[in-house]
Amino acid sequence: MLTRRGVSILSSTLGLVAASTLAFDGVFSTVALFVLSILGIESILYINSSRRLHTVKVEVKSLARRAFVGDDILLTIEFTNPGPTLGPLLAIEKIPYGFKIDAPNDFWIESLSKGETKTVEYNLKALQMGNWKVGNTELIITDRFGMFKTSRSIQSHSEIQVYPSMRVGEEILRGRVHIGMRPLKRSTVSTSHGSEFSGIREYYPGDDYRQVAWKAMAKSPMRLPKTKEQEYEQSLNVTLVILNTDTTGEGEIGGRKLDAAAELAIVLAHLAVKTGGEFQVVYSSYGAVDRTDGSPLEIASRLCNLSPDPNLDLDSMINSAITASKPRSLILLVLDSPYPRTVDPMILRRAIIKYQFLHALILDTTSFIKYDGEDVRVTQASEIIGNWELGHLEALLTQLASGGISAQICSQSMLVIRALDAFSRSSLVLET
Amino acid sequence: MAIQNNPPQSFIFVILLFGGMASPYLLILITGQYQNSIFILLRSIIEINFNSISAFMALAGVGAYVYRIRVGSGAVQDSFLIATLTVPVVLPSLLMVGLLLSPVGNRLPLYFGAAADLYLAGIASLAIVIPIIAIVSHGSSIIRGKGTPAGAVLMTMVIYGLVAFVLSTVISPAGIVSTGRVLEEAGTRVLLQTLFIVQFVIANILETPIPVPPVELGMTQSLQLGTGRIYTGTIFALSAALFLYYRLFRRHSEEDVSLEQSVKRSSRMRFSNLKSVGFSILLAVALDIGLIVGISQLTGSAELALMAGLIGVMGLIILIGLGDGLRTRLLWRAKR
């Protein structure tokens, strides 16, 4: 196929031929014919090479199968030519949008002799969680002047799973980040069987009958059932409900609302490790409610495929969150409701039951979608839309407050802080 | 700039290529003793007469152009260049208009004649410096890698024509008495020659009788270059071929739409590639010889053989382009 570069070269050569012909000069006409012949010879050599493009073997090698957001992944691609020498090749790597390449993504292979293998290496930086196919290549053969080209698409089977970043969570675990209003009390034990007795508390439905404090119950004035409290029980359990509606995919690469929610989940998972409480995440997947718990890494591996779900059922998700949450739980609701969407507070109110706290974190869309351009009109328009959106969120906040639901508007940078603050406040309420 | 990105050897190579590309007009410059024309301009400035302004401004035009190339385009550079190149022609024209409007009465023919002489000297001064400006531009485009390679080859032909034109008009008589007189006569010949070229083109279009060339009337001179043209022509052809590879054989990407974008990338023409490049050049020579000799034998006309060869090779490239495009489409359809 003739390239735009080829059109430029051939049209200028045509001009040369026309001028030399009009000049009625034998020497210059011969030179023009010679220049034209070189282009002709290169074109013939290209045709000869391009027929054998499909014989080139391409192998993609990646040392990593899993990575975290922000990691660098080294990718190696080997090109082997089993046939006669091929002309210049241009390998263009198709970088998935969840990755970034610092160097140019095209690699020039001047020639590939018979049986020769040439290797191309490049670093990819993971920007966004998810399952990504890497190493898809477009192999282009051209002539030495770049007048013609033939391309071949090579689909790779190399897949890399990118987990959300664990950095902030790990720093919390190491105690580097100050959390909320009060210092966190670290649990001495994490299992019920090995925990120490710390006092007597009221009986909650579902408590192990072996833990019932019969003597204390007998001594109490109303004969109310009492339970032996273990030290691990002083910690707060957290259920994070990610309402991954179709709008949660909004935001920049690696900075979507979903990415922020997943990062929050990892932070809270680390917090659970530190404080001894239980932690689980509830989210929607293809219209069905899904739940995950376990170590931060396990949660990261499950959440890396989290995607916006247009079939999300809020009712089912709230019900699932209520049933899955243990007593002394904080239900954190990551809610995305940009204009003109609203949320029925009555559905959320169901989650407010005894010994459970509910706190909604309303995502501020304006902090996820930013305009950094210099166009004044676009800046003004985005400001107007931003103000309108904030007005809508404040109205939603009032609506939720009137329904007795604690909620806060969270920008991208404030989501984790607000969640930790809610955790801290709930723990304080439990202690008092 | 290409030179900054390429190793120093590359700069020497480009200079050599420029020398080769410039060889046809360098030959004519030397044979025709072009330096005499420059000396006439310089002497005109030293003599400080009425024509000195035109000669000085014309030569200053060369300086302005060199400055513009070094610094780059800009309002000051452009104004400087335009001012220097227009003064030799515009100043006498304004004088003539002013004289026509002024109440000089019966002395008008005297003053007007002087202004007309100044006008002719201005035209001659410009005609002398224009090939120099063109050569500077040619060298700059080759060294900096501006424009297309075919454009650089074409520029050689244009400069050759310009130099031949100027040399045919500026006759340098031995023992010049007045440089002003020489410049005025040269200006007249420039006008005559230009008039002839225009008439020639019109006559060709209208198919009317071709006018008699000023050379045959003894108004201008013709140059005899001899076998030198064949040697310089060969050097020019080889240099053009190598320049083609030097400029175009570079790493190019999908984004490199224009040729100038790929100038930023270093040339792949190296000693290690000379074998394959030389093979292609030899094939091209063989193809040319085959075409010219073959068609000449068939038609008995070398000129016709050249024309047929040009059309044939161009046709071959177009056929390859069309065939390749067709094959791509067929493969695409077969995949679907």
Report on the architecture of this protein:
Chain A is α/β, with parallel strands linked by helices. Chain A has two domains: 1-163, Immunoglobulin-like (Sandwich); 167-187 and 235-431, Rossmann fold (3-Layer(aba) Sandwich), CATH 3.40.50.410. In chain A, 34% of the residues lie in helices and 26% in strands. Chain A has helices at 4-22, 26-50, 167-173, 214-219, 257-275, 296-303, 314-324, 345-349, 365-368, 376-402, 415-431, and strands spanning 57-62, 66-68, 72-80, 89-93, 99-100, 106-109, 117-126, 130-133, 137-142, 149-154, 159-163, 197-202, 226-230, 237-242, 251-252, 255-256, 279-285, 288-293, 329-335, 356-363, 406-410. In chain A, the strands form six sheets. In chain A, strands 18-17-14-19-20-21 form a six-stranded mixed β-sheet, sandwiched between helices. A four-stranded antiparallel β-sheet of chain A has the order 1-3-7-5, with no helix packed on it. A four-stranded antiparallel β-sheet of chain A has the order 6-4-9-10. With 336 residues, chain B is mainly α. Chain B has two domains: 2-206, no CATH class; 272-336, no CATH class. Helices cover 76% and strands 0% of the residues of chain B. In chain B, helix 2 (8-31) runs antiparallel to helix 9 (228-248). The radius of gyration of chain B is 25 Å and the shape is elongated. Residues 1-8 of chain B have low confidence and may be disordered. Classes of the chains: A alpha/beta (432), B mainly alpha (336). Chains A and B meet through helix 1 and helix 2 of A and helix 7, helix 9, helix 10 and helix 11 of B.
Question: Average pLDDT value of chain A?
Answer: 83
Low-confidence stretches of chain A: 180-194
Inertia-based shape of chain A? elongated
Largest sheet of chain A: 6 strands, mixed
Total helical segments of chain A: 11
Spatial order of strands in the largest sheet of chain A: 18-17-14-19-20-21
Q: Structural class of chain B, please?
A: mainly alpha
Q: Structural class, from helix and strand content of chain A? A: alpha/beta
**What share of the residues of chain B does DSSP label as strand, in percent?**
under 5%
Greatest contact between two chains: A-B, 56 and 59 residues
Work out the helix count of chain B: 11
Please report the total strand number of chain A as a whole number: 21
User: What is the CA-atom radius of gyration of chain A, in angstroms?
Assistant: 32 Å
